[in-house]
Specification:
By secondary structure, the chain is mainly beta. The protein has a single domain, classed as Immunoglobulin-like. Helices cover 4% and strands 41% of the residues. The strands form four sheets. It has a five-stranded antiparallel β-sheet with strand order 10-7-6-5-13, with no helix packed on it.
């Protein structure tokens, strides 16, 4: 019998913007994936992958400063055959998230979307100005059929190769629905929190 793996995201209160102070966020325990993975002749089979998400990793437009205190985690597990990625996207202290993706590109650059994660793997953003989100905001499975942009029509191994070479990141985009954009936390349409995806063993 496999043991249940648990992710502990413990975040304290943060200042969301100059006019609003976030309420304390209690520790959040989320069941993630099994500790053990079935053996497979596929070298990638059963691997765990993921990344913490923070404002520090974002690449902002010239003259824009990202002071967001939001945090998150993107967690993935590859099946034994190496063909399906199960995922969970977890956030805390973020406002107005309306989409999140995997992008193919190295740290320090903005790059094309290759997979949608939030609101789902369907290519469709959520509503603008939706307010505070905390906890698991999206979960599901990804196959090669979900690939878009430069990975469209390619196998799962293409995404795994990008991750292995440090060329895949997750970011969460926010928009308050009021012009202009990039006015502060909760209004960074190009991305508010981000992290490079990496292997985390089995």
């Amino acid at each position: 019998m496999s043991r249940a793996a648990w992710l502990l995201v413990a975040l304290t209160s943060f200042v969301g913007c100059s006019s609003q102070v976030s309420q304390p966020t209690a520790p959040l325990q989320v069941p993630v994936f099994s500790d053990s993975a079935a053996t497979s002749p596929n070298a990638n089979g059963g691997k765990n992958l993921g990344t913490p998400l923070s404002a520090d990793e974002e690449v902002m437009p010239a003259g824009i400063v990202n002071t967001s205190k939001a945090r998150g985690n993107a967690i993935f597990q590859l099946n034994a055959a190496g063909t399906v990625l199960s995922y969970k996207l977890i956030v805390a202290n973020i406002d107005n998230a309306f989409m999140a993706h995997i992008h193919r590109g190295p740290a320090g650059t903005n790059a094309p979307i290759v997979v949608w994660l939030f609101p789902s793997t369907a290519v469709s953003p959520g509503p603008l100005g939706a307010g505070r989100l905390d906890g698991v905001i999206a979960e599901g499975t990804i196959t090669a059929a979900n690939f878009i942009g430069p990975l469209a029509g390619q196998p799962m191994s293409a995404l795994l190769d990008a991750i292995s070479s440090g060329n895949a990141y997750v970011n969460v985009h926010t928009n308050d629905g009021v012009s202009p954009t990039n006015t502060g936390p909760g209004d960074f349409p190009g991305g508010e929190i981000r992290g490079q995806v990496e292997h985390r063993g089995r």
